[in-house]
Amino acid sequence: LTSANYPDVHRDPRFKKLTSDDLNYFRSILSEQEILQANELEDLSFYNEDWMRKYKGQSKLVLRPKSVEKISLILNYCNDEKIAVVPQGGNTGLVGGSVPIFDELILSLASLNKIRNFDPVSGILKCDAGVILENANNHIMEQNYMFPLDLGAKGSCHVGGVVATNAGGLRLLRYGSLHGSVLGLEVVMPNGRIVNSMHSMRKDNTGYDLKQLFIGSEGTIGIITGVSILTVPRPKAFNVSYLAVESFEDVQKVFVRARQELSEILSAFEFMDSSSQILTKSELKDVIFPLEDEHPFYILIETSGSNKDHDDSKLETFLESVMEEGIVTDGVVAQDETELQNLWKWREMIPEASQANGGVYKYDVSLPLKDLYSLVEATNVRLSEAGLVGVSPKPVVGAIGYGHVGDGNLHLNVAVREYNKDIEKTLEPFVYEFVSSKHGSVSAEHGLGFQKKNYIGYSKSPEEIKMIKDLKAHYDPNAILNPYKYV
Ligand code: FAD
Ligand code: 2HG
Ligand code: ZN
Question: If you average pLDDT over residues 289-295, what whole number do you get?
Fold first, then answer.
């Protein structure tokens, strides 16, 4: 059997098709609210389809267990019966990893959503995996702490989901990756075994750091049910400035200067190209564009610290110097909280704007800073040469670039009017070859999922891929967890 949506992918016949006996078993351990079964009344497309509406599975069953013990029973049963399972958090992932390809059972973490404990002295938060990131953040903000990770999907994505993808987000530059801030995890293994390592220690050199195996594993080797994470003191003062520069070289110059002159208060450094902001204008109709004229590149700089006067004066000195030298040609600084939020919207709304014409092909790559923008230019040239880009009925609107300059992470988004194979073949493996030729990574922060399952070799050696496969085979010998994806 091939998938109607993916003619090149075949259903693995080792996986059992769900029977009434299976349903009866799930009914014996779960309440009615924890089982969603497709029928005339229940439409499961929210769970079957991803955020971009690019990947679509055909699962007929979603389980939303409320306890770790129930997850353990479900996995134990699925392992024995060889039922394939897709773990799902907030379903905001951008690589098709969180949805089924065929009829896999969807195991949603949405009902496992309690804050377990917060220690206001150490700043360590322990919570269930299904807690929505924004809710976790609101909980600790009351006690003057903040989650070390922030991203546009915060209102929907789960704490467990961001750990499973090792999401990077807007403040990685300041607070580092989840590989550093996660202190412990609770995980249910494919055979149902619960591994509790919800530690609260920053230092623990007792052998392999096992939790790292699950951070960024994308639901392929275990289900994360609990997270222990070191949060950060909530800064008392925030500033956001939105600046214009005339070239990508100048983006880099401002970055170097911002690191030197703003140093410890610099908390985000994002760049956006002109086309990304033009697209966003059509989404942000009721927010006025912050600058009078259009420019080739824009930069959003956030500072945060404990003393507003100190931060203001540092930022002012920095901005005066880069403007006097002509590196920055225009700019504004938010004067109040509303303006600050509005400036952030010009950055955070790009993912949504990029697909407003119908769809988007997303590439999330690490590249040396000097080469970062050349991929966007090369992609636009390639699409033009293929005759695919232009006004309707051409299928491609254009390629835009933006991203986390501080992390060497480019988001190349190709806005399209429809998803089609010609576009995909023009872009892939072209983009991956380009990245590999510059010794970058084909996934900086979104993961591999289904989209990049055939392209891991552009960033990992055969020996590394073999180790990944060995680990998978050892812990998930029946390969029930998230099949058809990158491993
Ligand atoms: P899902 O999408 O449900 O799942 C993602 C993957 O993790 C899947 O493979 C799934 O099987 C697995 N998974 C989920 N939960 C578990 C679990 N408990 N145990 C085991 N496996 C699990 N990413 C960034 O890195 N930086 C950004 O700035 C950023 N911004 C975004 C902005 C928007 C608007 C959107 C839509 C996405 C953005 N992302 C960003 C993508 C990012 O990957 C997700 O938002 C987030 O990490 C996924 O969380 P989720 O709970 O939605 O997981
Ligand atoms: C961001 O930084 C996210 O906004 C999403 O990682 C990027 O949609 C994208 O390509
Ligand atoms: Zn990002």
Answer: 97
Distance 154 CA to ligand 1 centre (A): 10
Separation of CA 161 and ligand 1 centre (Å): 5
Question: Which ligand 1 atom is nearest residue 352's CA?
Answer: 34
CB atoms within 10 A of CB 385: 10
Q: Judge if the beta carbon of residue 157 lies within 6 A of ligand 1.
A: yes
Which protein residue's CA is at the shortest distance from atom 6 of ligand 2?
169
Q: Are residues 275 and 361 in the same domain?
A: no
Would you give the DSSP letter of residue 383? H
Q: What is the pLDDT of residue 150?
A: 96
Instruction: Verify that 252 and 157 share a domain, yes or no.
Output: no
Which pLDDT belongs to residue 73? 98
Res. 40 pLDDT band, cuts 50 70 90? confident
8 A C-beta contact, residue 97 and residue 485:
yes
Q: From the CB of 403, is ligand 1 less than 6 Å away?
A: no
The pLDDT of residue 4: 67
User: What residues flank ligand 2, with Cβ below 6 Å?
Assistant: 94, 152, 351, 362, 364, 411, 413
Q: Which atom of ligand 1 is nearest to the CA of 449?
A: 9
Counting the structural domains of the chain, the total is: 3
As a whole number of angstroms, the distance between CA 487 and CA 482 comes to: 9
Decide if 120 is inside a domain.
yes
Q: pLDDT value at position 1?
A: 67
Can you tell me which atom of ligand 1 is nearest the CA of 163? 47
From the centroid of its chain, how far is CA 365?
12
Tell which one of 446, 451, 452 to mutate to probe ligand 2, the residue whose CB is within 8 A of the most ligand atoms: 446
CATH number at residue 188: 3.30.465.10
Three-state DSSP state, 160: helix
- With 0-12 / 13-18 / 19 or more C-beta atoms within 10 angstroms meaning exposed / middle / buried, residue 291 is middle
Does the structure show a pLDDT above 90 at 58?
Answer: yes
Q: What is the pLDDT of residues 426-451, one digit of tens each?
A: 999 999 999 999 999 999 999 999 99
Would residue 473 count as lying in a domain?
no
Strand partners, 415: 360, 398
Distance 72 CA to ligand 2 centre (A): 33
Structural domain span for residue 406: 355-446
Query: DSSP letter at 289?
Result: -
With 0.90 as the threshold, say if the pTM is over it: yes
Ligand 1 binding pocket includes 171 (Cβ within 6 Å):
no
ipTM computed for the complex: 0.99
